[in-house]
Write a structure and sequence with these properties.
Blueprint (H helix, E strand, L loop, with lengths): L1 E4 L7 H15 L4 E4 L6 H9 L2 E4 L9 E4 L6 H9 L3 E4 L3 H15 L3 E5 L5 H9 L5 E3 L13 E6 L5 H11 L5 E4 L5 H14 L4 E5 L5 H11 L5 E4 L15 E6 L5 H13 L2
Parallel strand pairs: 1-12, 2-3, 2-4, 4-5, 6-7, 6-8, 8-9, 10-11, 10-12
């Protein structure tokens, strides 16, 4: 079997930066915690644990040392609490997420009803919501918009790992319903490039394998995009999950990976597929 890797796949700058900052904190010594999983990749989080970087679910669980803010960002009040507790704070928030947070805060300050296109339960969206003052509308699709909007001045931001089509759907539904509409396309370029490359590759191969954490929103979306154009799509976290039966009769296999998937994870999956030939 021939294995083709998508032109854009795997770890992005924001995730790479977060891992580097957490690693530097570990090397500096002393207790180090991340507030929640640093990134949505269980294997990478375990590797950090092996280096002494523990995971805390709340600032109160960190008695001393360094607290690393994960790539998804947090409510500003969380950082204030960490400062008050005397913790050394390392902010590993992805720069693209920081931009979405600032845009949401600016829109709220200027009196717009803020609409966030994203998953309400995702930590990134929770952080953006907090920056917007906690009163934004969170929607995944146009059908989630309320029948009556709080006001006729609406500003839109989007979770950095959402698809452009989701954003366009919501924006199109708002046009004609408001007097003023401001839209900030805060989808990160890494996400857009990976989604486009995955779609193009999935159309040309017999089987598509998507590598990355099952708790990763951007990886899950890659799998959804691929399944829309190819019925033989499989989402795995590690090479051990591969089933030889998936590749029966296949001549060309495509591989892509989410933005939180380290290179060594991708390489392991590729090697395992090639070993099936």
């Amino acid at each position: 079997m021939k294995v083709i890797v998508a032109e854009h796949a795997g770890i992005c700058y924001g995730v790479e930066r977060a891992l580097r900052l957490a690693g530097e904190a570990a090397d500096a010594g002393g207790p180090v915690h991340t507030l929640g999983p640093l990134i949505h990749n269980p294997q990478a989080v375990q590797a950090l644990r092996d280096r002494g970087v523990a995971v805390a679910s709340d600032v109160a669980e960190v008695p001393s040392g360094t607290l690393v803010i994960r790539s998804h960002g947090v409510d500003p009040a969380v950082i204030e609490r960490a400062d008050e507790a005397g913790l050394a704070v390392v902010d590993a928030t992805c720069p693209f997420v920081s931009t979405a947070q600032r845009d949401a805060a600016d829109l709220a300050a200027e009196g717009y009803t803020v609409v966030i296109v994203g998953d309400a339960e995702h930590p990134e969206v929770e952080g953006i919501l907090a920056h917007a003052g906690g009163s934004a509308l969170i929607v995944q699709r146009a059908s989630d918009l309320p029948e009556r909007l709080p006001c006729k001045r609406v500003g839109v931001v989007v979770q950095t790992t959402q698809s452009p089509s989701r954003l366009q759907e919501v924006v199109s539904a708002l046009l004609g319903r408001v007097n003023e509409l401001r839209v900030f396309n805060t989808i990160c370029s890494a996400t857009a490039h990976r989604q486009k490359a995955a779609d193009e590759l999935a159309r040309t191969v017999d089987v598509m394998v998507v590598v990355g954490g099952r708790n990763s929103g951007n990886t899950t979306r890659l799998a959804e995009i691929c399944r829309a154009v190819n019925p033989r799509v499989h989402h795995v976290e590690t090479a051990e999950e591969l089933d030889p039966a998936w590749f029966e009769g296949a001549h060309v296999v495509g591989v892509t990976a989410g933005a939180s998937t380290p290179d060594e994870q991708i390489a392991g999956v590729i090697a395992a597929i090639e070993a099936l030939s």
